[in-house]
Amino acid sequence: MPLGEEKNGTCDRSIYVNNPHLDSMTDDILYHFNLGTSTHDLAAMFGDVKFVCVGGSPWRMKSFTEYIAKELGLSDPNAEYPNICAGTDRYAMYKIGPVLSVSHGMGIPSISIMLHELIKLLYHARCTDVTVVRIGTSGGIGLKPGTVVITKQSVDSVFEPRLEQIILGKTVVRCTELDGELAEELLQCGKELAEFETVIGNTMCTLDFYEGQARLDGAFCSYTEEDKQSYLAEAYAAGVRNIEMESSVFAAMCKLSNLRAAVVCVTLLDRQKGDQLTSSHDVLNNYQQRPQALVGHYIKKKLNASKKS
Amino acid sequence: MPLGEEKNGTCDRSIYVNNPHLDSMTDDILYHFNLGTSTHDLAAMFGDVKFVCVGGSPWRMKSFTEYIAKELGLSDPNAEYPNICAGTDRYAMYKIGPVLSVSHGMGIPSISIMLHELIKLLYHARCTDVTVVRIGTSGGIGLKPGTVVITKQSVDSVFEPRLEQIILGKTVVRCTELDGELAEELLQCGKELAEFETVIGNTMCTLDFYEGQARLDGAFCSYTEEDKQSYLAEAYAAGVRNIEMESSVFAAMCKLSNLRAAVVCVTLLDRQKGDQLTSSHDVLNNYQQRPQALVGHYIKKKLNASKKS
Fold it and tell me: Which of A24, A152, B138, B212 could make an SS bond with B206 (beta carbons 3.0 to 4.6 A apart)?
């Protein structure tokens, strides 16, 4: 299937599911969330959601919820934020006001299961005008560690903005385009915060952390330091500024379901200078708070603007 | 690279890493385990490991450790089994006697990160003669739900026993062969237990739970029930008895590192009859204990045999 053949309408920004079979199902079990349409009133639970932030680590997504509650003035010193998916350990989910926070594990398959169920959840809850941001960690190329990269295009291992998915044994190519306007708005938020460097660049999405990202420190390695450096230099020349493992399917699925989407990842190291994460726990922890600070600022700004209008 | 070009010796069954760069590293940080060679005495912590059981869910791997402790007569009513990877939420790891239990999340990328670090851990700890078993859940084809499938071959979406990995932007094909003798021994354990049906069959490994497994209930679906049924029938004709999301890279990486490996998954439903997991929590929970009962029986038998000899 050529790029962009799967189209979405753009008029009212409601959530699209592209599946005629769903209408004939009397019940829809969102198995990996431990939620379902016959067991939960999804519209009552999630109907007001306007922002969804997703990230690999369950702990980070809980801490994002605590952070955003404080930022939005919704926090209560005695408040507990219960994990909405408490009956399963596949994903963790938290909600405060219009902001939903969901973990997705590591890699394309793990985030893809979560997104199928998240998109159905938002659809069943009849949410409209939802913005989804992945806040994550990554390896940087040619950037000072701690720099935040907002993804322009999510590209594959040969630097093309596409995702190959296999459906019924056949390869389907999907477009990994993200919302350019949203990326610019987020860059502006980075400038306003002025607490760390923020750039827009391409993000390479791989299926593997070690060999797939040209690391020299995995259990297997069949290439030299020189091979690694020349691959990373090629990536840099193609506009790649960071490497992670979820952005392509995130971009493709959000596009197919008419969700405004962005990817905001901090770089934990410069891959041209090394492979191992040798920075201290505190330094890495500080870096990981940067995407959430940036996205928190964006959400606050948007909510304040909508109150005024 | 053709199938099987990456060879291992087979004489002393020590763990192989195939990476010349590791020798020149003064320290090796196993980042996603929160362990490292300079911060932990890996040989003292893990040198006696003979069996490693891996599975998607951290809860299930903790419960496996409690179960195996009881089975091996190593349990203490007051014992706590601390999570060895407590400093991170990427994976959970538990150990009791010679049995290590590690979670791997969902999908090929997630288990691949874990296996790179596990193989290096076993190598640094100088372990020998290690057997690794994935105990998991899957969708069955033409089997009564609750049947346990021991994988003969892990096959891809066109039913070939191979894994395509992308290294420096180029496709490398790896062999997904598992240990045939170990599979037969495990089948024998199933017969001895006689508590549930156990079969040997091929396992299809996919990158996606919904469209990649021909489900009709994802957020997107572009095919008919008839298309789905004919794809599953083709899979069945090729010897596929269950579908999951980790076995191919598990088989390939264990083979490359000279680890005796098996995949033992219970089928939670018959995919020819449906897509959603509608069985009760209790029934699904009972099913999930079957692979651990089978592998527990195998480990007990092996340890008893080695005591006698």
Answer: B212
